[in-house]
Each structure stands twice: as C-alpha cells, then as structure tokens.
Design goal:
Elements (H helix, E strand, L loop, with lengths): L2 H25 L8 H20 L3 H15 L3 H22 L7 H19 L7 H14 L1 H16 L7 H22 L5 H7 L1 H9 L17 H39 L4 H12 L2 H8 L4 H17 L7 H21 L3 H14 L1 H4 L4 H16 L1 H10 L8 H4 L23 H7 L19 H11 L2 H20 L7 H15 L7 H17 L12 H5 L1 H11 L1 H12 L6 E4 L11 E3 L5 H9 L3 H10 L4 E5 L5 H9 L1 E7 L2 E6 L19 E2 L4 E3 L4 E4 L5 E6 L5 E10 L5 E9 L5 E10 L5 E8 L6 E8 L5 E9 L1
Parallel strand pairs: 1-2, 1-3
Antiparallel strand pairs: 3-5, 4-5, 6-9, 7-8, 8-15, 9-14, 10-13, 10-15, 11-12, 11-14
Length: about 800
C-alpha cells in the first residue's frame, strides 16, 4: 500500500472513531434552547451578509460600520473612543519601544504598549495619584511624541479600508461574515451591565477602588488576592478611569478578538492559507469558553494574548527563521511578552517550563554570536515585565505567590497550609479527559454541558494528521498546547486556566482539515460547518452572564431594571454609597460582589480570614457590636438566607434595617454609648490614679483637683473612632477654669498628641463635653480630671464613651 494511502487510512480511521464517540455523546445531550447569544450571532451575520451583497464591500469593513452604529444606538460611543485611543496609544508606544517604524504584526506592538501601560499603572497604584487627568495625559503623550507612527498607522488602516473584496474567494467572504457575527456578539455583550462574580468581586472592584481612592491598598489582610499578579486589572483601570465600566468590559472583549487575529497570524506562520487561517479564528471565536471570557470581566483573554505572542516568538527562535539576528530579536521579544503574562496570571509559571524545553530543543538555532548579551537582555525583560507583583507580594506578606504554597513560605497572613483550588474540578488527565470536557463540562468549569466546545472531538484526528504531515511548525504548536494543558491540569483541571491551549489547538484543528492530502475539501467544509453550528447552539454553555437584553442596552432605565432583576446587590452598592458619607468600611455578609463601593468591604469569608475569625468569635450582641465598632463599621449588607440562624439573629439584634431588596438587607449598626471608664460616677476610685494632694470625699463621691494635682485613668481605644469625653464639675471655692483633657498614646506607651477643651465653672454642677477622634496610631488614651489653674475644682462624674 502506498505511503500516502496508509497515512490517509490512519487519519480516516481516527476520524471515524471520533465520529462514533461524538454521536454517542450527542445522544446523551438535551438540545440547548435558542438563546440570546445565538440570536445575536444570526441577526448580525444576516445584516453583514446583506450589506456585503448590496455594497460589495469587505465584510470586516462593513462590520466596523455596523458596530459604530450599535455603539451610537446604545449610547456607548465614548467608551468605544476611549478603548480605541488606548489601543492606538499602546500600539505607538510598542512600536517606539521595539524600535520598529513598521511591522506587519501590529498586534505585538499593541501588546507591548498595553503591558507597559499596565505596569506603570500597577506602580502608580501605590500612591494616591491616580486621577483621570493623569491617565488622559498618559495616553495622549505617545500620540503627541510619536506622530509619525500615528500617521503610518493611519495610512495602514486607510489602505485596509480601501481594499477591494475582489481578491477574496467566496469561501473567504463567507468566513468573514461568520467572524463578523461573532464580533458583534462580543461587542454587544460588553455593552451590557456587569453581573459576573469574579468581575464584581475583583476584576472590576480593583479599577473602581482605584478611581474612588486614587490608590490601591495592597492589603492582603482585607482582600486575600490584593497582592496577586494583576496586570490585566491595571490595564482595565486605565480605560475605566476614563470611560467607566463599559470601557473596561469592552477592552476585555477586544483582547478576545485580538486573539482571533493572533490565531490567524500563527496559522499563516505555520504554513496555512488565508482560508485555513480564517477557519482557525472562527473555530476559536465560536467556542463557548471564548464567549464566556467576554461575557464578564475576566483576565484570561488578556493573559492568553500575551501568552500567544510570547509562544509564537519562542517558536520563531528556530531554524525556520532564516536570519540569525531575527531569531535573537524574537528571543528578546519573548522575554518581555512572557514577563507580561507572568504579571497577569501566576498560572504562567506552569507553562514556562514547556516553552523552555521547546527553546532548548532548538538550541542550535540560537546558539550564535551575541547570544550571551541577548539572553541577559531577555532575562532582564522577563524580570522587569513579570517580577514586580511577586517582589511586592514577598515584601508585603512574606510569600511571593501569596496565598499559594504558604506551607513553604509561612506568611503570617495565611495559615501555614497550601492554598488549594476548588476540589470540584479535580486534577490530572485521563484517557477520557477530552470526552468529559465536552459532555461533562461541569467537572471542569462553572458551566453546562458543551462549555468546552465540540472541537475537542476532532482534536485526536487533527493531532494524528499533524504527526503524519511532517510539518514541524504545526508539530511544535501541538506539543506546546498539549504540554501547557498537561502541566496546568496537573495542578487543577480548570478550563479557564488552559485558555491558551484553546487558542493553540484552534490552529491545529484548522490546518490539517484544510490539507487536501488528508481531507477532501467538501468533507473539511462539512466538518467545519457542523462544528461551528454546534458551538453556536451552545454558545452560552460556559457562562451564566452572557444574556443580551435590548432594553438594558438602549436606556439607563432598562439597565437599572435589568440589574434590579438579575443582581440587586449592585443597586444596593449605590444605596450604601449614598448613606455611607464617610466612606467607612462596610461589613458584607452576602456574596462578595461590591465593585463600586466607596469604602473597604469586610467579607466574613476566606477573602478576609482575620475578620471572619473575629466575627465567628463574637458570641454575644455586645461583643459583636464592639468588634464592628473597632472596625469602624456603621453599615452592614446582609443576605438574609446565607447565614446560620444564630449569627443572623445576632446581626439583626445589633442593627436596624434601612433598605431591603429581596433577600438583601442594608442595615445600620445601632447607636450605642459604651462607657470605657471604670467607675465613671466616682463611687470608688477603681481605675483612677490620684496625684497628691488631690482629695477624694467618699461620702460625697467627689474628687477635688487642680492643674497640678489631676486624677487620671488609662483606657484602650480604636484608631479612627469618635469618642465623647464629658465631665460634671463645679467650682470648689472661687470661680476658675477647668479642663477636659485626653492624652493619646501609641502601642509602645509613647505620647502622640493631646486633646484639650477648657470651660468656666460655676457654683452649680454642670456637664461639659468634648468630641474627639482617636489618631491613626493610637491604642490607648489617658483621661484627666483636672483644673486649668491652681484653683481647685470638684468633679462628681467623668465619662469617655463611644
């Protein structure tokens, strides 16, 4: 049998086996109902297709026009402008940084510039300097200084806009129409209000906190994730500062669409045609997980964009790049891009060994004169771009990857155990992992069946075809994708953590099926069409946040009504902000979805173990009140159905309801006047220290003192809390002046400052009081019963209450 026929037979046999497995799996499924995502795709494709037929313009150009119209209709034109300016400024900055005036791969320039902007924002977050004006100037500066680059980019865009569709085949035009349908979905979902858990707990919380407080606290005691790598969140913060929530969500969707472009570039680099490159991009954007990453403000799209660019740079450091100097420049570029990936997500550390092995295998290609300098510069780029969050975490917590691996690093801010991912997702890979990813997706993600997409059924066939094809480029892509998946699943089998493998495997799936040596053209088109159709039908399987509601897109009233129906806690945040005028901490006994809060959120969960332990240890209403007061809490957000009855009753006892949205109750801590002094009525001298010759009349329960012979008592205080210091006094002999005095002390017993008010006494008992706030570093206060002169005064009571 000829060699060609044998290869064809092997590939066909694997395809038939996959088809049988797929048919069996589909027989176990319930057909997903038509959802808003699928309807949006179909309507967008129909609109672009109709415009393409009537105008004979390229579908991509028409799609941009359609998206501009949608932005105007949804009143989101300003966030679109902000994201576009950010992308342009980042591209110019990247071109300047790479010292290239022109390059066909503008996406690399954009990523280098975006990573640099994000790194600068992460450094600025340590200081209270983060204002919209600063970020507006930051984005405009590269455009002003790099006007030549701006002009060059403008000419490139104009050339693409004026390009004719005549060079495209009908199949390529049809694929472009399909891609445009998904692009419209990704942009429209970005215009929707944010209702995602991770976004509101962290990825939108950080930008909103930065905008309100003008700095980030990096307080791992309050938020356990406060020192984790957050480059994507810093990038979102830039556009959030200028364009609000929609701009942040839109930048996330833009990263997903940028990935489609990177996949196209990788497919072309690996020897694919313009058609197969489009198929690779289409397979990716039709994947339910890709849509899930855009349906809420996640970071995996930005992370994967850095990973893809870095991976392609590593792959180019090989003999397939004929110019040795180009190999070295790609090695430098890989260091910077992978450093940005490290600064975005710590999972990068699991993938770097795979890329290192790939690099070492190709050592003959880059072991050339000048390599030592290149390796040093590349390592410096990797460290400068990626090490900042780990150094910061190590300095602030004692654990560079806090809270992970704390059994090794022993940070005092977390128990000496390793932080473990959710056990529900398991670890490792088995012979049926691909099948379970498709038809038992809830074992790998918080989603439904089909969340991973159905392309995994074709992956074994594509992998065998790649192995038999002899194409070294596609083989390297396959090995990196499989290695990254294996290494990550070894820690936790979670789909979002292997998102780069989804992108890489999209290339692997498209190229072999476009190779006529293995698959007839008609069979490849049928397989691709069935795959995209199945993915589209299950497009919302990986997310619970991807609904498209026209009312929420077209009016603010519809937006508010949508949030009230789907996530009332977001409306509750606005209410809290209106009432909590001092921006004091808010105790949250509900889901941690407090993005936009104008103060710190105290979560009684693993987000804040110290506060959780304090709350759990408060076994009485008075003790709970004391702990809340110590934390400067006035307002509480309570989910009435999420707490054990005993703890809920205790919270309801110490607070009063102010607003109610369903099961959410906004409550204010009851006003209490807890007395801190021992024996404030002077029935004895317990707690008091007298200075001779001051006197105490036990029969009348009266202290007689003057400025030189005061009576004092030391009590503990909580920094930042307000106290009322009051006295009841009269003249002992002749008219004189008295004092209300409080001396503040730190935890070492050293004097900080004093608070004093004077009063004039009379022959009648009168009460005088002074309101004071404990200084930031005060732990105790000394209360005085004292005159203001040498003439004695009589005191019959003193009080120091909260």
């Amino acid at each position: 049998m000829p060699r060609f026929s044998l290869k064809y037979a092997v590939v066909l046999l694997v395809l038939l086996a996959s088809a049988v497995v797929g048919v069996y799996g589909f027989s176990t499924l319930e057909l997903a109902s038509m959802n808003s995502g699928t309807r949006t795709i179909l309507l967008s494709m129909a609109a672009v297709a109709a415009l393409t037929v009537f105008t004979r313009k390229p579908p991509i150009l028409l799609c941009l026009g359609l998206l501009a119209c949608l932005a105007i209709a949804c009143a989101q034109i300003w966030p679109v402008i902000v994201v576009a300016v950010f992308a342009l400024s980042a591209t110019v900055l990247g071109r300047w940084g790479l010292r290239q005036t022109a390059s066909p791969d503008w996406s690399v320039h954009l990523l280098v510039g975006a990573g640099a902007f994000g790194t600068l924002t992460g450094l600025a977050a340590y200081w209270p300097i983060n204002y919209p004006g600063l970020y507006g100037a930051l984005l405009l500066l590269p455009l002003a200084l790099g006007h030549r680059h701006v002009t060059s980019i403008g000419r490139e865009l104009l050339r693409h806009i004026q390009a004719s569709r005549s060079a495209q085949t009908p199949v390529q035009t049809a694929l472009d129409v399909l891609l445009c349908g998904f692009a419209c979905l990704y942009v429209l979902v970005a215009f929707m209000p944010e209702v995602g858990h991770d976004a509101l707990a962290m990825h939108l919380f950080v930008p909103s906190h930065l905008a309100q407080r003008h700095q980030w606290s990096f307080d791992a005691n309050t938020y356990v994730w406060a020192v984790m790598p957050m480059l994507a969140d810093w990038i979102y913060s830039i556009v959030y500062m200028l364009g609000g929530e929609t701009a942040a969500r839109l930048s996330n969707s833009a990263f997903t669409l940028l990935l489609a472009w990177q996949i196209r570039n990788m497919a072309l680099w690996a020897g694919g045609s313009a058609t197969s490159a489009r198929w690779a991009s289409l397979i990716f954007v039709s994947t339910p997980l890709a849509f899930a990453e855009s349906s809420s403000l996640h970071i995996e799209s930005a992370w994967t964009a850095f990973m893809m660019a870095g991976t392609l740079a590593i792959l180019k450091v090989s003999s397939v790049t004929p110019d040795p100097s180009e190999r070295l420049s790609q090695l430098l570029l890989a260091g910077v891009l992978l450093g940005f990936a490290m600064a975005t997500k710590a999972v990068t550390l699991s993938v770097l060994p795979v890329l290192l092995v790939m690099l070492l295998v190709q050592y003959k290609a880059w072991a050339v004169p000048g390599i030592v300098k290149t390796l040093l510069l590349g390592s410096a780029g990797l460290i400068l771009a990626g090490a900042t969050p780990y150094v910061s975490a190590g300095y602030l917590t004692g654990n560079p990857v806090f809270p992970f691996f704390n059994a090794i690093f022993h940070s005092p801010l977390w128990p000496n155990i390793n932080f473990e991912p959710p056990a529900a997702f398991g670890t490792g890979m088995t012979w049926d992992t691909l099948y379970r990813m498709v038809f038992k997706s809830p074992q790998f993600i918080e989603g439904r069946v089909g969340a991973a997409g159905f392309q995994w059924l074709l992956l074994p066939t594509a992998a065998v075809a790649v192995l038999l094809s002899g194409n070294k480029k596609t083989l390297c892509i396959l090995l990196v994708g499989a290695g990254a998946m294996f290494m990550t699943f070894h820690s936790t089998a979670y789909l979002r953590y292997v998102f780069p493998s989804f992108a890489l495997f999209s290339v692997i799936l498209a190229l072999p099926f476009s190779d006529p040596r293995f698959f007839p053209r008609s069979l490849a088109i049928v397989a691709g069409a069935v795959l995209v159709l199945a993915n589209t039908r299950f497009i919302q399987a990986a997310t619970y946040y991807g609904d498209i509601k026209p009312s929420a897109l077209l009016s603010q009233a519809g937006r508010d009504a949508y949030l009230l129906e789907h996530l009332p806690i977001r409306n509750m945040v606005d209410t809290v902000n209106a009432l909590n005028s001092g921006n004091q901490p808010v105790a949250v006994f509900a889901s941690p979805l407090m993005a936009g809060l104008h103060g710190d959120a105290l979560y009684a969960s693993w987000y804040n173990l110290k506060w959780k332990n304090e709350f759990d240890a408060a076994t009485s209403p008075s003790e709970l009140t004391q702990r809340l007061r110590r934390r400067q809490v006035n307002w509480l957000v309570i989910d009435l159905k999420s707490l054990p009855p005993v703890q809920l009753d205790r919270l309801l006892t110490v607070s009063t309801s102010y607003a109610r949205l369903g099961d959410l109750d906004l409550r204010k801590l009851n006003v209490t006047h807890d007395e801190h002094l021992l024996d404030p009525q002077l029935s004895s001298l317990e707690g008091w220290s007298l200075t001779s010759p001051s006197t105490y009349d036990a029969s009348r329960k009266v202290l007689t003192v003057n400025v030189k012979t005061p009576a004092t008592q030391r009590v503990e205080v909580t920094p930042g809390l307000t106290y009322i210091n009051s006295v009841s006094a009269r003249c002992a002999t002749t008219a004189t002046a008295g004092r209300i005095q409080a001396n503040w002390m730190d935890d070492q017993g050293d004097f900080i400052t004093t608070s004093i008010e004077t009063f004039d006494c009379t022959t009648q008992w009168e009460t005088h009081e002074m309101s004071v706030v404990a200084p930031a570093n005060a732990t105790s206060v000394i209360i005085y019963a004292s005159g203001h002169t040498d003439i004695p005064l009589e005191f019959k009571s003193l009080s120091f209450r909260q």
